[in-house]
Design brief:
Order of helices and strands: EEEEEEEEEEEEEE
Shape: globular
Helix content: under 10%
Structural class: mainly beta
Number of helices: 0
Strand order of the largest sheet: 4-5-6-7
Number of strands: 14
């Protein structure tokens, strides 16, 4: 069981009742579609916590935590890109971005939109689509191809 407390603490409880502290300063968390990875968003950084063994290269172990990105400005929203569960979409005041979680050779980051947007959402029902709001009157979407 994953527990996020009101002060930003993140804990994992095992089936035998042990509770382990993972990290603090957490603003939001999100599971990938297969519940293998947990996206941890803090004020200005994102991490991935591996909840299961990754049997494919680069072979993360259960419990491994990786810094995904540290931003010079606050990260407003961060969501899994369910099209492959290997990328995370996030937004800052600078724009909307897509980052790969495989850090071998550095992490590739692609800017999808420049400028501020609101309310970034991804759904498993529309795995190749990111929904966001450009202003308070209109909803937009960005559809990505594999």
């Amino acid at each position: 069981m994953i527990i996020q407390d009101g002060s930003g603490g993140l804990f994992i409880a095992s089936v035998d009742g042990d509770v382990a502290s993972v990290t603090g300063g957490v603003e939001s968390i999100a599971l990938d579609a297969r519940s293998q990875k947990l996206l941890i968003k803090k004020h200005d950084e994102m991490e991935v916590l591996w909840l299961t063994e990754n049997t494919k290269s680069p072979f993360q172990k259960k419990g491994d935590r990786e810094l995904l990105f540290r931003s010079p400005s606050p990260i407003e929203h961060a969501v899994w890109y369910f099209g492959d569960n290997a990328h995370v979409a996030f937004q800052t005041v600078e724009g909307l971005f897509l980052i790969e979680i495989d850090g071998r050779g550095g992490r590739n980051i692609v800017e999808l939109l420049t400028g501020a947007t609101d309310d970034l959402v991804a759904t498993e029902e529309n795995p190749d689509t990111l929904f966001y709001q450009e202003d308070r009157q209109s909803q937009s979407r960005c559809q990505l191809q594999g």
